Automatic annotation (TrEMBL):
Domain of life: Bacteria
Name this protein carries in UniProt: VWFA domain-containing protein
Pfam families xref list: VWA_CoxE
UniProt-listed InterPro entries: UCP010256, Uncharacterised_CoxE, VWF_A, vWFA_dom_sf
Organism lineage: Bacteria, Bacillati, Actinomycetota, Actinomycetes, Geodermatophilales
SUPFAM superfamilies documented for this protein: vWA-like
Amino acid sequence: MVDTVLGFARTLRHAGVPASPDRVEAMLQALGSLDVLDPGAVYWAGRLTLCSGPDDLDRYDAAFAVYFSGERPRAPRTAGQPEIQLAASAPLEEGPGDGGDEETEAPDLAVQASADEVLRHRDVAELTPAERAHLRRLFALLAPATPVRPSRRRRPNAQGAVHQARTVRRALRSGGEVTRLLHHRRQDRPRRVVLLVDVSGSMAPYADALLRFAHAAVRARPSSTEVFTIGTRLTRVTREMRLRDPDRALAASGSAIPDWSGGTRLGEVLKAFLDRWGQRGTARGAVVIVCSDGWERGGTELLGEQMARLRRLAHAVVWVNPHKGRSGYEPLTGGMQAALPSVDHFVSGHSMAAFEELTGVIQHA
């Protein structure tokens, strides 16, 4: 499969489509979750990842037909498919000899290219069930980058400081003459990422999307990512999130969470996390992402104290509030005012574009 995709990417580049290595990697990750024997799945996985604009669509269709020696597959029209995808599939059913003029073809191409772009910027809470189903497929293409930290150990490298001991030992084997300087440098290691996802009633419209983002983060780096849910109590769902299929992972997490759509006691739950997990090493030097709207049922003094405690342990604290993406939002709730002094990055998490921005914040935290 890898050789086939690489050959197809070379064909696209010859046709004028800039199929860069990162886009090819995204297509391979998408095919890892799809049926590679289904031409429709292969077609849409490549089109969503390798094309960067409306000008690439015709070239992609022609290259796909030539490379795979078949007609362009028609989009499957299932009951759960969003209308925006059905509209995008209409031009694919037309052949080159249908006699359509350029004036009607250009808007169709614009709709094809902008369909996913419009959905990326839509608020998750305002999506229809069909659009939510399409958004889940976009989450399968999301690959959150992992932050790194410099390791204390040094390894042989072509660049870096001179490794005096290895250089001298090599010189002794050649009669004491230094013929080559050997170097070593510190290697980067993945930094731990901890996600605390609020599953209370006020966060119900966004809980599914936030957990799918957490699943994508665990899928990218299983050994250095931890996921907890917070509400009226603390629940560790890292083991459930390590399931490969996102739907199975969310179903297993839902069975393990006893306080789904309940109340919110952020201060008490955060104290429980720090006492049991954070103080022992889970939060030390990690990038901690708190996904919550800041509604606190109890007093805000405890939340402020625990956030300051978390800030002293963690490398960086990121707070994700879906309401921040709305125009005119101001953090006026008591919980947000108590937490913000200890937050390094305050971002929104209301749309697919916001989640993509969050991956960059985590990477460069």
